[in-house]
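Progress against Task 2.4 (sequence-to-structure conversion) is shown through the following example record, which the project officer requested during the mid-term review.
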Amino acid sequence: MSRTSFLYLITLILFTGMVACTSSEKKAAEKSKPKQPTVTLIPTGKFYFNSFVDCNMAEAWVGDTFRIFPGKYGEDPLWGNARELKFADGQHADEAFSSPAEKFTEPVLPKNAPVGTEGLHGAVWFETIYQDTTDASGKTLFAIYHNENYPQTLPYDANTGQGYIDKHWPQGLTGKKTPAAVCRIGVMKSVDGGRSWANKGLFIEDLQARMILKPHNNSVTFAGGVGDPSAVASGDYLYLFYGEYGYPGTYDSLTYDPAKEWSGQCVSMARIKLSDLENPEGKARRWDGNGFNAAHNGIGQPIASLQIPIDSGGPASSATGKYYWGPSVSWNYYLNSWVMLMARAEGPSWKGSRIYISYNPNKDLSTGNNSQQWTKPELLIDKPGHILWYPSLQPLNSPEDIGNKNTSLKLGQHVRLFYKDQSPEKNVYWSEFQIKFEK
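Structure tokens generated for the chain above:
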């Protein structure tokens, strides 16, 4: 055999071995990947919710009572002041959700503070209830709330850096002369099972410098901020999932970059120690790409797997941008996985007819980047011609769900799907499907 032939044979053997090794490694890697859960949608009759909902459904078991807290409360110059944040009870979820409007009870809530003074400003919606596990009575509750303000209700204060400047402000939802809102996320506490509440302060917020103004903000949604949250406890922390609508830096109309805006938006995460919920101001930290290191009013990084690529997505301030928003997160003990539902904005004013689902198998969200390991969103339901918001998974009236005291934060194999359907029946919150998960 010639030297050239010998070298060719050796090269061929080595190459074949490398291919076989690579193929074997690829198969091993694929085998080690967790199997994606499957979802079966089971059509049901329409299950209507009988009170106002414009948020995630906050709920908890107080003793043997399943209690829900939908609705809106507080000052709103755009839509009018509201007193719709009420609660209803049931022996199980179906009974509470079926409550007629007149059976809802209005809790005692803190009054709005005068403009220019410290306190609660704007309107609030309860989005998640964290139930203090150290209170055996189950009556100590922390409500994580979505808060909206305008330059009118929260004017800029140079001493604190809070508030907004009414200059080049973008358009709001009710016409060209109305202002867009800014969303923030805060915490309230109850020690009597939700019959009365005290405001504890802000969880996270974006400040004036990050507001996206005219001429670039044409989405007819928010001027910026953080909102539409869901929160779950893992270990010593409460983990917050929220929509990021601000600019990841100082907005300047002369140097504005839509790609930069997009890079810092979508569903993001922050966390706070459970022991800090009593006094949360400044205590939370946002995910910054390496850990929960960014300040509560600083610049974080969104969950990368949940971002729509910029060429098919775009920034939230754009009238044509597409992005996921309104996350609702639960621990599924049947799947041994976190499950996230989210809506998808596909035009101005959060228009979109689709709901998506994503999974994270890491029960411990504190280790490494476990909290960021969400699967690429999969389409769960599409209703062309409808606008779907605030999807959530809810327990049934089954012995399992009652016995385990399941809520929208903890669920099993069989669940009910709820969402807000904006059309053709405006402002309807209902369920048309149950869901069966398979491992």
